Amino acid sequence: MPTSQPGRAGLVLLNQELVVRFSEPIDPSTVTNDSVRVLDEGGHPVAGQLRCGSRSLRFSPIPPVTRELRDGSLSLGGSYRLEIIGWPTSYGIRSRAGRPLEHSLSVSFEVPRDPTDLGFPSPFVPVGVGEEPFTLDVSHGRPLRMAADEPVLDLHFTLPPRPDRVTADAFVFVDLEVGSDSEREIIPESVVVLAERSPWSRHYGSTVRVRFRPDQGIEAGDDIYLMFRSEPDRVLRDYGDRPLVPSVAPLKVEIDPGSRARLKDFEIASLDLEPMADVGLGFELADGRIRPRARIEAGTGRDGDFHPTVDTVLDGSTPREDGSRARELHFRDFVVPADVTVRLVGAEGLRILVTHEVRIEGRIVLEDAARAIPWTAGEHPGFAALVEASGVAIVTAGRIVVAEGAVLEHVGELMDGASPCTLIAAAGIQLGDRVPPRTVVAVEEGATISGRGAGLIRLAVQMTSGVPEGTQLRAGSWTGWLALPPQHIGRIEVLLDDPDDGLQGWLQAAEPSSVGGQSPLVAPRHLIRPIPLPLREPLDVRGGAFVRIGFTAEEVGPGALPSAAGFRLYERDRPR
What we know:
This protein is mainly beta. Helix content is 1%, strand content 34%. It is built from one helix and 44 strands. The strands form eleven sheets. Strands 17, 37, 38, 40, 41 and 43 form a six-stranded antiparallel sheet that branches. A six-stranded parallel sheet has the order 21-24-28-32-34-36, with no helix packed on it. A hairpin with a 2-residue loop joins strand 18 (283-286) and strand 19. The longest helix has 6 residues, at 383-388. It is globular, with a radius of gyration of 28 Å. The termini are far apart. 34% of the residues are buried. Residues 1-8 and 198-202 have low confidence and may be disordered.
């Protein structure tokens, strides 16, 4: 599979697709985030969608949606490189016939600050087909409407508007006072481009969300009309810098007469967030927000899930393929099933770092793991010092559970003042009754340590929110089931409060049990499939039903963790 490399750096735009073609069909199983990656100047991976064709690879960057154009994959004036790994690495691209790519490829490119360098009028490649007009999308036939008690209006356009041209000054909202010739202009509080496309639109465009303040006097029955500015410095423009084609007449915005009623208030501080089974991180409540439970100290999860089915040995002195020692193992989950024994050998130190949870149902044997620990219960050693002083340390961003009947034991002599191992969990520790004395158990402030272990050294530690550089993990959690009021009749709607980009909300509903109705029927035939938020339309559920809200983040990487301030549940059609 020969390759060729251009002689100079290329120039691309913010939404431009990168395409690499090969001389032979590609084995798609070899196309991974390790074998194909786009990196910025600092060597950090760039987010985007990677697709594999028969003889081609395509990388589509995420276009920015904020006015500053800094929230997409690429930035104006930024320098990047595309790397495709080939021979002699073991994880490089291969053909379907098994032949490795002849050699690795590294192509540098830049995003110009001035798009005219590439002959384009804007920093974006134009989107759409042919002469498709840039207009407000009314193909769905629905009226423009918003609720008086939640004055938010979503406007769907046939083509994506340039985010740097989306300002409140581009829109004119006029309230015609009933019974008089006067009118007043209503200025939006905020106008933003949403990252997701409209789920029912037939076009390539995106949605602009216009939000007003509740105190701006928008009431049911008001005659509010929308118009668009046409002045060159204020008009909306698409990626090709074409101005919006305005409607022939002003567009009426219908004000919903109070039909969105708050159904029930849920205090997020009382929510029990249950992790989803197929993801590497759960969510937690922190600083009044719901966010992935991730800690820098819990590692990268690069070694996958640890779920042994036979007796296993983890030895910190075992050499790896690259010659290093396996002193640090990075797992997403660490589960020791019943009837399985895992030996942890800590003669040279062993660190087991877990991004999700640790659950021990079988037997763990600690060998050559004892170390002198200078702290006593209640003291607050630094995290790094505590781990460094330990022979075997198990660290997780979630919980550690040593189930009833499970065994955690130390073999060999335990000298005075020595500890057999250290358990550190940000979300709390639950112990059975077979844990060796002087085991160090450490949690963050607010988390609990429960169980009957004797002679434990109980400590508090402070871990760091986030994940290490270069890490990308999925996260997901459900709330517990929430009961709807028995008197509810009609449809419900759920709104996330202040969600960050990268966080997706979900709604799932279940019928109440036939005996007493105090719990949901969770058999698959009684559950609706999870529905992404925001809902396309309100969901029909009857009184006494149960709902739960899910939160997922596909990629939790360096930087701020995606979060939301909570959610609100509404009754959309109030019985009359």
